[in-house]
Write a structure and sequence with these properties.
Largest sheet: 6 strands, antiparallel
Strand content: 15-25%
Strand order of the largest sheet: 1-2-3-4-5-6
Distance between the termini: 51 Å
Radius of gyration: 35 Å
Helix content: 40-55%
Oligomer: single chain
Number of strands: 15
Order of helices and strands: HHHHHHHEEEEEEHHEEEEEEEEEHHHHH
Number of helices: 14
Length: 584
């Protein structure tokens, strides 16, 4: 007779069911307390965020509630980790204080299983915060910024009504009153402002007044400026890359420098470009928009302005080379402007002359000394006509626009002691003038047209042969260096923003686990005392994330290490607490 089978075969141990009831109850308490804590904390932070713009006057009282509601969503990036850690601390401290954790452990439920709801909540909050950081918060930041800064007409009207002078485009503008009105739909303007009894003072970089203008009435229009095929016309929210501001002063009196008397004019116009603030900071961009910046960095205005600097520097260099080759080969060089006029140059070549290019005169002949000839052919706009200008001193100057936001590429011909002759009338009649300046001309074809279609990296490649020459053009050299430096800074800014958003999401998950483990470990202490063991490490984590992002601008590797060191340190701190809990 065989022996009986072992007892463990006759009666195998029953498989323990997961404590789903405990998990559901704990997770429900966690989510409920996280929601309550987040609402309270984010409301306080959002109210604090409105104090400064409200006290500065950039935020109207009517926009206070709207601004606060908008600020609540971006503040979630910083409030949610602390609120989640606080909620986890209270929930698990109650579980430990009511001896539920002891009962669960006595019934065979491990601490790791008891922490499963906290892990699930931590994962869901991290995913949710990552989605907020990448897609939702940038849009709300844009709306907040729009309320306090983007509305230029309203901002000017507010400051003027408060009796303050406003600095715009290097000028200080003051008026007795300002009234905002609806612009004429046919004008194409998006906003209109009427100023009464105003004065504008243009200052130099040192702050000294250069030009003073006073007028009875000032009118200000805001026009959208479309981008090109490279920089893009509008962003995803439908905003143009830049806006043009036109200010017309009627019955104006203008005084420049030390002039004792001003010059009266019926009207005086000033215009300038205002970049879209949302295209100057990566924090306003979503995850996909940040990724597209790697292929199209020109969508950032500070890159696009430097790209245009390099475009017109290369165009000027190529134009001067083309003009020099043409003149040295004995050919005429033709220039044209937007009014249909042509300018025909005759000379022996050109050579650098400071910031301009001197035209080398034609060889001397028995009839007279060498000279530079320029024939101006007027188009249909001014009637057909030809004027010959002759001088022994002439030079070409590249006009690149008044400032970086208004870059252009035009050539100006300057001739001294020039004689003019109307070829359409009495060809023997000639008049000598001390100086002649003809502006607004471009080479045919215009070299800037091809360069404007190129992206930043392509332009840098085009500038390599120029920089490698024996005498590189200083404008091309400086523009290329600045563009390359700005591209590197943009790459670092994008990388730092991506790492910051991800680090904040991961830190939120770790803070939930830290609060739960710490509450179980110090179950005999008061809840707020226990939370301090979570709060200070969490603060240190956020400080390292913010400090690491700023440090990345100076040292990429050091900044990334510092940014993630706080998260890693908090995770190690939580693991040490958990091991201590398991031993006890």
């Amino acid at each position: 007779m065989s022996p009986p089978p072992p007892a463990d075969i006759m009666h195998p141990p029953m498989r323990r069911r997961p404590p789903t009831t405990l998990w559901r109850a704990t997770a429900a308490d966690l989510f409920k307390l996280v929601a309550m804590s987040t609402v309270v904390l984010v409301s306080v932070i959002a109210f604090a965020a409105t104090v400064k713009p409200l006290s500065d006057g950039t935020l109207q009282a009517g926009d206070l509630l709207r601004f606060m509601l908008l600020a609540m969503v971006p503040m979630l990036a910083y409030a949610l980790p602390f609120a989640a850690g606080f909620a986890a601390t209270l929930v698990y401290h109650r579980i430990a204080g009511d001896n539920e954790a002891t009962a669960a452990h006595a019934s065979g439920i491990s601490h790791r299983s008891l922490l499963a709801p906290a892990m699930a909540v931590a994962l869901s909050l991290a995913v949710g915060l990552a989605a907020l950081n990448e897609f939702v918060i940038p849009r709300f930041l844009q709306e907040m910024q729009r309320i306090i800064t983007v509305d230029l007409a309203r901002l000017l009207a507010q400051e003027i009504q408060r009796g303050k002078a406003v600095r715009v485009s290097g000028m200080m503008v003051y008026a007795d009153s300002a009234r905002r009105a609806v612009p004429d739909p046919s004008s194409g303007a998006t906003d209109y402002l009427l100023l009464a009894k105003m004065a504008a003072v243009e200052t130099d970089p040192a702050g000294e007044p250069v030009t003073e203008v006073t007028a009875n009435i000032g009118r200000l229009w805001l026009f959208p400026v479309a981008g090109d095929a490279v920089s893009g016309d509008e962003d995803e929210a439908g905003r143009p890359p830049m806006s043009r501001v036109l200010m017309r002063l009627e019955n104006a009196v203008i005084a420049r420098g030390d002039e004792a008397l001003g010059v009266a004019r019926d009207y005086f116009e000033i215009d300038w470009i205002v970049p879209n603030a949302f295209r100057d900071n990566p924090k306003y961009l979503t995850m996909f928009e940040l990724a597209r910046l790697k292929e199209h960095p020109e969508r950032m205005n500070f890159i696009e302005l430097r790209r245009r600097d390099l475009v017109y520097a290369l165009a000027g260099y190529e134009a001067m080379r083309s003009i020099d080759r043409g003149l040295r080969s004995g050919r005429e060089v033709r220039l044209a402007d937007d009014r249909g006029r042509e300018l025909v140059l005759r000379g022996s070549g050109i050579e650098p002359d400071g910031g301009a290019w001197r035209i080398i005169p034609l060889p001397a002949t028995p009839e007279g000394p060498g000279q530079v000839q320029a024939e101006l052919i007027r188009g249909a706009e001014g009637g057909r006509g030809r004027t010959l200008m002759i001088s022994r001193e002439a030079r070409l100057v590249i006009d690149r626009g008044p400032d970086q936001a208004n870059r252009t590429f035009e050539l100006r011909l300057e001739m001294k002691r020039a004689r003019t002759r109307d070829l359409g009338g009495d060809q023997n009649a000639a008049a000598e003038r001390a100086e002649i300046a003809v502006t607004g001309f471009k080479p045919v074809p215009d070299p800037a047209a091809a360069y404007l279609r190129m992206q930043s990296r392509d332009l840098l490649e085009e500038s390599v042969p120029v920089l490698a020459s024996e005498s590189p053009d200083p404008l091309v050299r400086d523009a290329a260096r600045e563009l390359d430096r700005r591209l590197d800074r943009l790459a670092v800014a994008v990388l730092s923003k991506q790492n910051e958003r991800m680090a904040l999401a991961v830190s939120c998950a770790v803070m939930v686990l830290t609060g739960a483990v710490t509450a179980l470990r110090f179950s005999r202490k008061l809840p707020l005392t226990v939370y301090l063991w979570t709060f200070f490490p969490a603060v240190a984590t956020l400080v390292t994330i913010s400090g690491g992002q700023q440090l990345m601008e100076r040292s990429l590797v050091t900044g990334i290490l510092m940014m993630w060191s706080g998260v890693a340190g908090l995770l190690i701190y939580t693991w040490v607490m958990f091991r201590s809990l398991a031993r006890h």
